[in-house]
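User: Hi! I have a protein structure encoded as tokens and I'd like to know what sequence might fold into it. I'm fairly new to this, so please keep things simple.
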């Protein structure tokens, strides 16, 4: 199927996108984010706060080994991760419904920009103090009765949007 080995993935060019998980509690969601990040060659994942880290059997169950291919780092405070990424030149956006958030279908990805997207806790979303540190918020348009998506589903949609924008 022409799949990369883990070492080939590590050496392969990545898209300039980092995913930051802010207090994500579900190990299955964490594993799923690793798997989507592997599929589209995301640069790195920051696991923050109560977000669990590999090695973990439950993360592995949905990551299927992507926790070994995608680079990751743990940081106790999500705000510190955001500040660090901004200091490294990333444009950091919270995936959150906020006043002034940019709808994803109207968010134009600049191929010359490095991006980080912060995704939040399954119940509380991205912490307000973290939202305040970000350069802005991006929102996935929704047209049904619910006003939120599962964090791993949202991550997949966002990663795909940025992948397409960075490769157009």
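Assistant: Happy to help. Inverse folding works backwards from shape to sequence: for each of the 168 positions I chose a residue that suits the local structure. Here it is:
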């Amino acid at each position: 199927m022409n799949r990369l080995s883990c070492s080939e993935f590590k050496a392969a060019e990545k898209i300039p996108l980092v995913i930051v998980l802010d207090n994500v509690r579900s190990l299955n969601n964490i594993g799923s984010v690793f798997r989507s990040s592997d599929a589209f060659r995301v640069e790195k994942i920051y696991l923050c706060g109560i977000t669990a880290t590999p090695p973990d059997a439950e993360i592995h169950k949905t990551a299927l080994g992507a926790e070994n291919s995608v680079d990751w780092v743990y940081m106790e405070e999500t705000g510190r991760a955001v500040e660090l990424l901004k200091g490294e030149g990333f444009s950091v956006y919270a995936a959150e419904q906020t006043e002034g958030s940019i709808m994803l279908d109207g968010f134009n990805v600049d191929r010359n920009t490095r991006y980080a997207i912060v995704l939040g806790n399954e119940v509380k979303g991205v912490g307000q103090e973290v939202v305040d540190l970000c350069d802005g918020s991006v929102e996935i348009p929704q047209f049904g009765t619910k006003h939120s998506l599962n964090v791993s589903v949202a991550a997949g949609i966002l990663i795909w949007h940025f992948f397409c924008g960075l490769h157009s």
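A useful reference point when you look it over: The helical segments are 6-11, 27-39, 57-63, 66-69, 78-87, 128-133, 151-166. Feel free to ask if any position seems puzzling.
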